[in-house]
Design goal:
- By secondary structure, the protein is mainly beta.
- The protein has a single domain (2-461), classed as Kelch-type beta propeller (Neuraminidase, 6 Propeller).
- It is built from 2 helices and 36 strands.
- The protein has helices spanning 117-122, 163-172; strands spanning 2-4, 13-15, 29-31, 37-43, 56-60, 63-67, 92-97, 102-107, 129-133, 136-140, 143-146, 151-154, 157-162, 181-185, 195-197, 205-208, 211-212, 224-225, 229-237, 240-245, 261-267, 270-276, 291-293, 299-300, 322-326, 331-340, 343-346, 349-352, 358-367, 373-377, 403-406, 417-418, 426-432, 435-437, 448-450, 454-461.
- The strands form 11 sheets. It has a 6-stranded mixed beta sheet, with no helix packed on it. The protein has a 4-stranded antiparallel beta sheet with strand order 4-36-33-31, with no helix packed on it.
Length: 463
């Protein structure tokens, strides 16, 4: 009997069924020497005040903002009880200055917040979808407690947060946090484990993939997957927000995905999005073929049965993604550092593991101007740090549910880094938070915790 990650957000359980991936084969993993750069990941000079994972984030005036998420690691997978204990829902908003490592924080339950219990519940969920637009942060859905009913649920809320007011409230307690937010509610928004984007004011918001999970999560549980890219318009009338769903796209069984990376890309100088891998197939395997998404929400998936179709081999779960684009060569690159993976290298040999282990290895996926994809193993990975807690002396494994924060580098409008502007070794950003594991494969929540570590990422152009 094999162990498999069959979870809402990275739980483990036991099945006698074989995990069948979307495809029986994978595209080859090349060497980084084929790329125009290499990367280094180093421990930063500061850390987070506490471990946090699966959170929403924003950047305002070079300050990092952390909202919601969880403060423990891999959740339990027991058949009884709540495997997502509400006491681990993050109810603290953090404002961090990466230039000094300084931290400011304030609780959602602070009297100056003046939030209702419902609003506290909504702003402390795990695995929400979020998107920053100027000085506003939009948070949609997510899974967490309904304190009034005592039930666990996926929220139906969209919350708009005024970041300028939010930072002021964290620093001084004024104005109230309640005055910093506006909300809209709709069943269309009841999603967790997906992604939220908007390319421009001329395009709708896109709520990509994910699921609606209701009640307590146990090892045999399943939510209702959206199996689609949902589009909606946000209406601001008389200072009140509402949404107008666009006509639902048809569902696609290959879109039965969650806990994945959906990221902005530029392909042949045109913006869009790509959904990479994710979980789960009906037999608890990983998806391997990407989904291409246009700014209006239209999407397509290459034929999984075609020999020429790209099939992702590694870094299959949500992890930090660093996007870079060269307008000169018209090549798009996505760095995927660590996380949970079907494939990995051991002793220089590619291997696979149906238990989907935590890894520290980094791959880069390249998309050329004709949408042809290829993947490469980077020589460097997360630094070697040993556990001083559970399983002392074991190497810590990072990346799952962590996030990337760009440094002061040139970006395209959609947040992709302008690769052509980087002429010498440059710190392009930081990786913060996430789950850290003391073992590649684990079936107890005590083997993992939320990570307080911050890592800097340096890009080194190849001469």
């Amino acid at each position: 009997m094999k162990r498999f990650f069959c979870h809402l957000f990275f739980s483990l359980t036991i099945f006698s069924l074989h995990a069948d991936n979307q495809t029986t084969d994978l595209s080859p993993v090349g060497n980084e020497t084929s790329l125009p750069f290499s990367v280094e990941i180093e421990l930063a000079s500061f850390s987070l005040p506490t471990g946090i994972q699966a959170f929403a984030s924003a950047v305002y005036k070079d300050q990092w903002i952390f909202v919601a998420g969880r403060t423990n690691g891999l959740h339990a997978f027991d058949d009884v009880g709540n495997n997502f204990p509400p006491n681990f829902q993050n109810k603290i908003i953090y404002v961090i200055d990466p230039s000094t490592g300084g931290v400011l924080s304030r609780s959602l339950e602070d009297p100056t917040a003046r939030l209702t219990q419902e609003q506290i519940d909504i702003l402390s969920v795990t695995k929400s979808q979020f998107f920053q637009k100027g000085d506003k942060l939009y948070i949609v859905g997510g899974y967490g407690i309904n304190t009034t009913s005592g039930e666990m649920e996926t929220k139906t809320a969209l919350t708009e947060i005024d970041l300028k007011k939010l930072v002021k409230w964290v620093k001084s307690g004024k104005p109230s946090l309640r005055s910093c937010i506006r909300q809209a509610f709709h069943p269309y928004l009841q999603v967790t484990g997906g992604a939220l984007y908007q390319d421009s004011d001329h395009n709708p918001f896109l709520l990509a993939l994910g699921q609606n999970f209701a009640g307590l999560y146990h090892d045999s549980s399943n939510g209702v997957y959206t199996q689609q890219i949902r589009a909606f318009n946000l209406v601001d009338k008389n200072n009140k927000l509402s949404i107008i769903p666009k006509e639902l796209s048809t569902t696609n069984p290959d879109y039965r995905r969650r806990d994945l990376n959906v990221v902005p890309v530029i392909i042949n100088n045109k913006p869009g999005y790509i959904a990479l891998s994710g979980v789960f197939t009906l037999t608890d395997g990983v998806w391997t073929v990407p989904i291409f998404i246009s700014p209006d929400g239209k999407s397509s998936e290459p034929d999984p049965l075609s020999a020429g179709t790209f099939k992702q081999a590694m870094n299959n779960y949500n992890c930090p993604v660093i996007g870079l684009y060269s307008a000169h060569s018209k090549d798009m690159y996505m760095l995927l550092p660590g996380g949970i993976s079907y494939g990995f290298f051991s002793g220089g040999v590619f291997q696979t593991d149906n238990e989907f282990p935590f890894i520290n290895q980094v791959t880069t996926i390249k998309i050329d101007k004709k949408k042809r994809c290829s993947q490469y193993l980077m020589n460097n990975e997360y630094p070697y740090i040993v556990s001083t807690g559970t399983n002392p002396g074991n190497q810590l494994l990072f990346g799952a549910e962590a996030q990337f924060f760009p440094a002061d580098v040139d970006l395209f409008r959609n947040g992709v880094i302008r690769l052509d502007k980087i002429k010498s070794p440059t710190v392009i950003g930081y990786i913060a938070g996430g789950i850290m594991s003391t073992l590649p494969n684990t079936n107890t929540r005590f083997d993992t915790t939320a990570s307080p570590y911050v890592f800097l990422v340096r890009l080194i152009p190849r001469q």
